[in-house]
TrEMBL record, chain A:
This is Na+/H+ antiporter subunit C. It is a multi-pass membrane protein. The chain crosses the membrane at residues 6-21, 28-45, 75-96. The keyword Ligase does not apply.
UniProtKB/TrEMBL annotation, chain B:
It is a multi-pass membrane protein. Its main location: membrane. This is Na+/H+ antiporter subunit D. Residues 149-441 form the NADH:quinone oxidoreductase/Mrp antiporter transmembrane domain. Signal peptide: none annotated.
């Protein structure tokens, strides 16, 4: 099962990189969203995939008797999901505001902070 | 194993003894800033109260960090595990001399920025949360310096990143939105790379505690091979992006000149240095074998960064963009220390980080004052500032000497150490690059001083005449809030230049703590470390 998931993660990364190489801001953001999901699945798979055995300890024991699912990656992924979702939301609004103000969503045309015909510093005294 | 649930032996899983009162200082920096940030957020409509609260909490933060550093120096590395769980299960906060020093210097710089912000951030900026964002940014910065858990480090990175987004777009100008898009997208990709590497590391070792990781990596037969090489490469790329090293430095000069100058000052002082800190932590403490394996790559990146930064600074006429390139050149020096990796070199990198935090913030604040005096950040339009304030011209000269690495100021000693370490390691090119970069920086700063201070007025002013430039000053220049921060920072620059022993001692201790991490491991796992 892990092999299959790993292939899927690879596909996610491919799509994410392809989209992030685009010049359109919206596509880059979609790429980032997919990248975030690829990372989450990667962490999840790195915690080893097991069949559905909940990590519960029977009443009279100190530790589980058989191999159980690893609960830690779920905590990590949950943290990462919350963070990447909020960042994605922020960037989406930022991109929209930038589109409103700059009139373009193509990154090559966003040259206000770094003007194309920027003059060199004074050459002589 | 069968037994009644009454006889559970908690000592196997938990630390049952109470935490010593002084050790609570470990969490104080994050608690103070979180509390202060929330309080400022609730009272954000009260624009008169904002600076007082913000500066008050930042001063508390400086005190807490000072107490923490003193305690670390007295008792050695301090560890505190959340929920009292025994490591490696709980999230550990582990403070050593390296983390405590950077945390203290960082909070001093933030306090200075908070004071300057009282003059330069208008009521709209205050209402939209300058002080809450600044305090929460410091939560992330101090948390990153203090934590002993690598996933937790990722979380602190994100805390400081989201607060920096808030600060960057504060004011909502077109140019800010443009800069924020580039800064935002590239930094988010950087932290995602960091997270990928952390996920893989967890997959290999099954732990996220830095001390535990360091032990497990050291116990490997062939600690530089296979998957670990991938992890190390990913970490290097991620932290290089955060630190703005060549060739992933382009977000920095595209964004650092866009926000309010006090925001630029905080960013220039702190953000890239957190990346360098993470690089030192991961490569020197956790993956020393991978660092050795990648030393040539890191050295090449360091040389390229040193030269890009210095040459970029020479080509700029916008002050803040020029200083942005100087930040990058400084990152190159610190990377040189990581590339060499000896105790001497790492101590040089730490000292340089301290110097760079102070001097870059001071330079951006100085740029703000120059703008108040003459109404421009452009070298072509600046001029005649010497007549306006001879004292300020002297302060700027001190900062220029310091950032170029000339004696007797704070930039000199770390550069001496780094060049010495590079030559001892047989990397003459690396040492040469540091010196060349320093020379080019001297040219760039000398030119700023000649044009902005010596020249009688803006471009085209005849020799011997002086033209008074119209500044944007609306009374700020007469207030202490503008002059006090730069005064404090310049005093520190001079102090570390004339009396470097204290900082040398601290950075050597910090470097020894990561190169030979026995004390670090002991503090987390107890005596047997």
């Amino acid at each position: 099962m892990e092999t299959g998931v790993v292939v899927l993660i690879g596909l996610f990364f491919t799509v994410a990189v392809y989209l992030m190489l685009s010049k359109q801001l919206v596509r880059m953001l979609l790429g980032i969203a997919i990248l975030g999901n690829a990372v989450n699945m990667l962490i999840f798979t790195n915690g080893r995939l097991t069949r559905e055995v909940p990590p519960l300890i029977p009443d009279h024991l100190y530790m589980p008797v058989e191999t159980t699912a690893n609960p830690l990656p779920q905590a990590l992924v949950l943290t990462a999901i919350v963070i990447s979702f909020s960042f994605f939301a922020f960037l989406l609004v930022l991109a929209f505001r930038a589109y409103q103000e700059l009139g373009t969503d193509e990154v090559n045309e966003m040259r206000i902070a770094e003007p194309e015909n920027d003059q060199t510093p004074p050459q002589g005294y | 194993m069968a037994g009644s649930p009454v006889s559970v032996d908690y000592s196997q899983a938990m630390n049952l003894s109470a935490v010593p009162a002084g050790d609570w200082l470990v969490v104080a920096p994050t608690l103070i800033t979180l509390l202060g940030g929330s309080l400022c957020l609730m009272l954000r409509k009260n624009t008169d109260l904002q600076p007082k609260l913000g500066i008050g909490f930042l001063a508390l933060l400086v005190l807490a960090n000072f107490g923490l550093l003193v305690r670390v120096l007295d008792y050695g590395v301090i560890s505190m595990v959340m929920g009292s769980w025994l490591p490696p299960f709980g999230i550990a906060f582990t403070v050593d001399a390296l983390g405590a020093t950077l945390s203290l210097i960082g909070s001093i710089v933030a306090l200075c920025a908070g004071i300057y912000g009282a003059a330069s951030v208008d009521n709209t900026g205050r209402r939209y949360g300058f002080y809450p964002f600044l305090l929460l940014l410091m939560t992330g910065v101090c948390g990153a310096f203090i934590t002993g858990d690598i996933f937790n480090l990722y979380v602190w990175f994100e805390v400081l990143l989201i607060s920096s987004y808030g600060l960057l777009v504060l004011g909502n100008d077109r140019i800010q939105l443009d800069g924020a898009v580039k800064y935002g997208v590239l930094n988010l990709i950087g932290t995602n790379l960091f997270l990928i590497a952390t996920g893989l590391l967890y997959g290999i070792f099954g732990t996220l505690n830095m001390a535990d990781l360091a032990q497990k990596v050291a116990a490997l037969d062939n600690p530089a091979s296979g998957t670990l090489a991938t992890v190390a490469a990913l970490y290097f790329l991620a932290f290089a992006m955060k630190a703005a090293a060549f060739p992933v430095n382009f977000w920095l000069p595209a964004s650092y000149h866009t926000p309010n100058v006090v925001v630029s000052a905080v960013f220039a002082g702190l953000l890239t240095k957190v990346g360098v800190y993470a690089l030192i932590r991961v490569f020197v403490l956790i993956l020393p074998a991978s660092r050795g394996y990648m030393a040539d790559v890191i050295a090449l990146v360091a040389i390229a960064t040193l030269l890009t930064g210095a040459l970029g600074a020479l080509a700029q006429s916008e002050l803040r963009r020029l200083f942005g390139y100087l930040v990058i050149a400084g990152i190159g020096s610190m990377l040189a220390g990581v590339a060499v990796g000896s105790t001497l070199a790492v101590s040089g990198a730490i000292f340089y980080a301290v110097h760079s935090i102070i001097v870059m913030t001071a330079l951006y604040l100085a740029a703000g004052i120059m703008n108040l005096m003459s109404g421009s950040y452009d070298l072509r339009k600046l001029g005649g500032l010497y007549q306006k304030s001879a004292g300020f011209a002297g302060v700027f000269l001190v900062l220029g000497f310091a950032v170029s690495g000339l004696p007797p100021f704070s930039g000199f000693w770390p550069k001496v150490i780094l060049v010495d370490a590079a030559f001892q390691d047989g990397r003459a090119w690396l040492g040469a690059a540091i010196l060349v970069s320093g020379f080019l920086t001297t040219l760039a700063m000398g030119r700023v001083w000649i044009y902005a201070f010596w020249r009688g007025g803006p471009e085209g002013t005849p020799d011997g005449q002086s033209v008074a430039a119209a500044g944007t000053d609306t009374g700020q220049l007469s207030g202490a809030a503008v002059w006090l921060p730069i005064g404090i920072l310049t005093a520190l620059v001079v102090y570390f230049g004339l009396q470097p022993e204290w900082m040398l001692e601290l950075s050597t201790q910090g470097a020894t703590g990561v190169v030979e991490p026995l004390g670090y491991l002991r503090s987390v796992f107890g005596g047997e470390g």
